[in-house]
Amino acid sequence: MPRHDRRYDLMSMPRISGDAETYILADGAKIDGLSRYIYGDEGAPVCEALYRGTELEGLMAISPWLVKAPLDGPFATRCFAGWVQHGVAIALASEFGIEQLARHCRDLLMALTTGGEPAIFRFYDPEILRGLLSTDRSGEDSGRLLGPASVVAVQERTTGAWEYFRQATPASDRQTAPFVIREKHLVAMEKAVQRTALRRLECHTATYFPQLMGSESRQEEGDSIIVRLIRAANGKGLWSTRDLALYINTHGWLGLDAFARADVTAIWDRHSSQPSQAIVRVAAYAEQQSREGRDYGQRQ
To answer: What is the pTM of this model?
Structure first.
């Protein structure tokens, strides 16, 4: 079974020792024009756009890229320091060369459901890969996912901490059987999607309403303020990322007691039969109130 360990080196580059060559597997769906950064940072990089030459070639604009690069170089720094909160990339090490590693990755791009239906498999999303590897007790899935890689390192977005997944004997032979997505994989991937949505909302809040993040110290210990706001929004029938962001925005504009205000609850109650429309109206009103308050303060 591959070995799994953690290091809590905040915001550091991954530390992979040994003679194996190092690579970065980056998700093109998360960064517009990803190849521009690869070529700009690495000059003449040794790299592969993984959708090229596959049935997914029509989606080249969001293709993942495998880049041979030092883990203390400019592209690694961009991925693991500049883009840390976006969860863009995974670090790998392999002794088998980029051609074999790229072929292995391409073989994983399309998986099968238990019903035999083909499905795009976003194993290269850091949250998804972490979820799959960390819940694999037998080691069978880990061996299939790591293939010729001796080490895979996945970064935690909020702290920069690293989790390492290692295997003593990387696969030297091509594994052609499709990966089968079973119920346990769906559960792990759904949790990964939820973590990704949470991180996006945290980044959104930290950017536009840092005062809410600063209120953490004034809250009781336990779940973060964003988790508590999400839970409260769910209680009002709000589930989509857009609706959750609008709910958070309302509190960013009016404060954590926003829904205790009579004017806000009146708007909500009038439209509460359709929660998605109600929160649009509430958020628009909250933004207007916030702007009017700022304008009044500036006139004093």
So the answer is: 0.72
Residue with tokens 């909500």: 268
For tokens 């916030």, what's the residue?
290
Q: Which residues contact 95 (CB under 8 A, 6 or more apart)?
A: 19, 20, 21, 148, 150, 170
Q: Are strands 110-113 and 180-181 parallel, antiparallel or unpaired?
A: parallel
From 123, 129, 190, 135, select the one nearest 154 (Cα to Cα). Answer: 129
List residues bridging with 112 in a β-sheet. 118, 180
For residue range 31-47, list pLDDT tens digits in order.
999 999 999 999 999 99
Q: CA-CA distance, 185 to 199, in Å (whole number)?
A: 21
pLDDT digit string, tens, across residues 126-169? 989 988 998 887 778 889 999 999 999 999 887 888 999 999 88
Tokens of 162: 């690293």
